[in-house]
Amino acid sequence: DRSVKSMLSAERQTGVFLSGGYDSTLITGFMVKNSTNKINTFSIGFENSDFNELSHARKVANYLGTNHHEKILKPNPESFLLDILAKLDQPFADSSYLPTFELTKFASKSVVVALGGDGGDEICAGYDRYLAATRLHRLNSISPIINYPLTQYAKFAKFSNQKQLKLATQFIKHKDLASRYNSLVALNTEENLAKLIKLEYMHKESNSRYKESFMVNSKNDLLSQLLDNDFNNYLPGDLLVKADLATMSHGLELRSQ
């Protein structure tokens, strides 16, 4: 509440990125509570119903009485990429930059300052991977017993959910928390990257620093190690970079909570 209140000082109208999830809903609620002006909320959706969360955002906006704006993302791939590449000044591999870029472009037509919910999952353990990594790690003591049957199951079972196969594979392959967690969140393996990228560009020292961050916090409980790692690596190395690049390309100031 205090954080949101401190972020509301602006000479012009302030908006908020509203997905309808816990983080953005709480922030929007506190904005409405602490502001004398009607809050502008901005949401973006997709034609594919599996990824479209506009209905959640719309319910929150209606309940809180915000000035709600929403848009279905229908980009022209060629012009979309050319527009992004013209403003993206570094290689960046997070695909969620695409909707973030479009959302920012949409919001910048109405406001110059917006609040966002980046950081909530890293503080409050909102990702499923935290549960998966900690539970898998606690099974290390019995891994020699179930290693073979689990390996066979991973090979021949028909998984309805690919996440199950990945979890089984990571349980078999990795024993330390850093390697296991990295394998769960990574989009690729070190073996595959070595085939695609020249050795001098592999940045092995960055992997070493990543694992060292777990060693520094090894006395803490498993969940705290994961949260600390994401707060110090994932947020400043991905999410906040993504938000800053997208918003600054449209002259919008984003204040992350």
Report the sheet with the most strands, covering strand number, pairing sense and barrel closure.
5 strands, parallel
Helix content: 55-70%
What is the percentage of strand-forming residues? 5-15%
Span of the ends, CA to CA: 10 Å
Number of strands: 5
Radius of gyration: 21 Å
Mean residue pLDDT: 84
Major β-sheet strand ordering: 3-2-1-4-5
User: What string gives the helices and strands in order?
Assistant: HEHEHEHHEHHHHHHHHE
Uncertain segments of ≥5 residues (pLDDT<50)? none
Structural class: alpha/beta
Helix run count: 13
Instruction: Name the overall outline.
Output: globular
Task: Describe the protein.
58% of the residues lie in helices and 9% in strands. It has 13 helices and 5 strands. It has a 5-stranded parallel beta sheet, with helices on both faces. It starts with a helix and ends with a strand.
Question: Could you list some keywords that capture this structure?
Answer:
257 residues, alpha/beta, globular, 5-stranded parallel sheet
What is the gist of this entry?
This protein is an alpha/beta fold. The chain is built from 13 helices and five strands.
Task: Give the secondary structure arrangement, pairings included.
Elements: H1 2-7, E1 14-17, H2 22-34, E2 40-45, H3 54-64, E3 67-72, H4 77-87, H5 97-107, E4 113-116, H6 120-124, H7 128-137, H8 143-156, H9 162-173, H10 177-185, H11 190-196, H12 204-216, H13 222-248, E5 253-256
Parallel strand pairs: 1-2, 1-4, 2-3, 4-5
Helix pairs in contact: 2-3, 5-13, 7-10, 8-9
